[in-house]
Design goal:
α2 packs across α3. The N and C termini lie far apart (88 Å). The strands form 2 sheets. Strands 1-8-7-3-2 form a 5-stranded mixed beta sheet, covered by helices on one side. Strands 4-5-6 form a 3-stranded antiparallel beta sheet, with helices on one face. The chain is globular, with a radius of gyration of 27 Å. The longest helix is centred in the N-terminal third of the chain and has 19 residues. It has 2 domains: 130 residues, Double Stranded RNA Binding Domain, CATH 3.30.160; 38 residues, no CATH class. The chain has 225 residues and is α/β, with parallel strands linked by helices.
């Protein structure tokens, strides 16, 4: 009797862990873990510009050589203005001609889309923690076994070094999708799109206007005595 109960329990547990074969909608699943840079300084903006410029000019080497032209945006945010200027600098530095007029030139367009998600997003920074094995010997668990054992006099420094790649603070609710395009009036010849986190306290630098959450109710007074 006990054997039958145990078998039934085990079978039920196994079936409970299986996904249903049919469902009215796709089952939500996570993407594989990935990393995304967080913009926190003006030097990061220059790095973004250099990165997308390199992607685009690599593709443009397949097409006829013309000057590049990128129109100035008088209403640009500090971020867009800095990235636009750095793209021009990168093109000139790499030996390309940047024209001040659009005639006969490739048109370069910079599009920046800000996306705001819900606050208090899940925090998945890294797994494992440093554990003292002996004096001067530490293990960083749940990482590559090839570097799991660290035997250094400054074990705390080793721990900080391993995790220095992770940005501080909570996962931002704000992200930017940055797209650089090159083309003419007929078609696109090269495009590069990247996504970045933005510190929520720096949203104004990216042209993101905070919504007015204050509720105002108007009362109309009629008559009087």
């Amino acid at each position: 009797m006990f054997f039958k109960v145990a078998t039934a329990t085990a079978l039920a547990a196994a079936l409970a862990g299986c996904a249903v074969p049919y469902s009215p909608a796709p089952i939500a699943a996570n993407f594989p873990a990935a990393r995304q840079e967080k913009l926190q300084a003006a030097s990061h903006w220059n790095a973004v510009a250099d990165h997308i410029e390199q992607r685009v000019v690599t593709e443009m080497k397949k097409h006829p050589q013309r000057p590049f032209y990128i129109a100035a945006d008088k209403d640009a945010s500090p971020f867009k203005r800095a990235v636009t200027n750095q793209i021009v600098t990168s093109l000139v530095k790499d030996g390309f001609v940047v024209s001040r007029t659009p005639a006969g030139a490739w048109n370069v367009e910079l599009d920046i889309q800000a996306v705001t998600f819900t606050p208090n997003r899940p925090q998945y920074r890294y797994s494992g923690a440093h554990t003292a094995l002996a004096t001067g010997a530490w293990v960083l668990s749940d990482i590559d076994p090839a570097v799991g054992l660290v035997s250094l006099a400054g074990a705390a420094d080793a721990f900080r070094w391993f995790h220095s790649q992770f940005a501080g603070g909570a996962t931002p609710k704000t992200e930017l999708i940055v797209t650089l395009s090159v083309g003419d009036q007929f078609r696109y010849y090269a495009r590069s799109t990247s996504a970045y986190y933005v510190a929520d306290t720096d949203r104004a630098l990216y042209g993101i206007k905070e919504e007015d959450t204050q509720l105002t109710k108007v009362f109309q007074v009629q008559g009087g005595r």
